[in-house]
Amino acid sequence: MTKTTQFLIGSEVRCSDGVCGKLSRVIVDPLARAVTHLVVDPARGSDVGRIVPLALVDETAAEVELRCTAAELQNLEPAEETHFLQDGEGYPGYDRGHVLVWPYYGFGMGGMGTGDMDLGAISGPQAVTTDTVPVGEVGIRRGAQVHASDGEIGHVQGLVIDTESHRLTHVLLQKGHLWGRKDVAIPIGAVTNVTDGIRLNLNKQQVEDLPAVNIDHPNRETGESATGA
After folding, report:
1. Which class does domain 6-73 fall in?
2. Gyration radius from the chain CA atoms
3. Of 1, 31, 166, 229, which shows the fewest CB atoms inside 10 Å?
């Protein structure tokens, strides 16, 4: 029987010397359909989250546990980068709207942290923060939309992987609203795309027909593994 590891986004993360943060994103290689990194936000303080290679994750643990100390976690690549937008005044050699990026760690950008901006209204540098992910990969957050073939069906709660290969086996989905919520595990074979939300080749009724699973949501007690592993 395949051994699986479950990553519930939003759950507590422990380092070798105690609780060190929360799981905020799971980074996926969409071509290999495999998890490559986790993003851990610090338990306290104003420091940014860190990108944790899966090699540092103890996949045999019942919870998300890292093979590093909290101090070592802070030495990993930051999960955000800051861009400075400027209008060109007082910065010779730069055109209006030029973007200075600091720091740069060789990662791609996972989406702007702000909405549309009127560059004409900016006076001096304007800091904009973006998520970082390894180039060619995508970050999946809790609450990301899941789309059936005939419309939106629910929101991501977490991912399940094959412990040995790190390939995705299921997407954990919460569908419905307050009085009709249902948690299901979507087999990865039903997933057609993970780069723009999660898209399925199942329709809403087919998702509804899947058996309910008991997802151990963060801040909610008890619950067995969502895939029975």
Report:
1. mainly beta
2. 20
3. 1
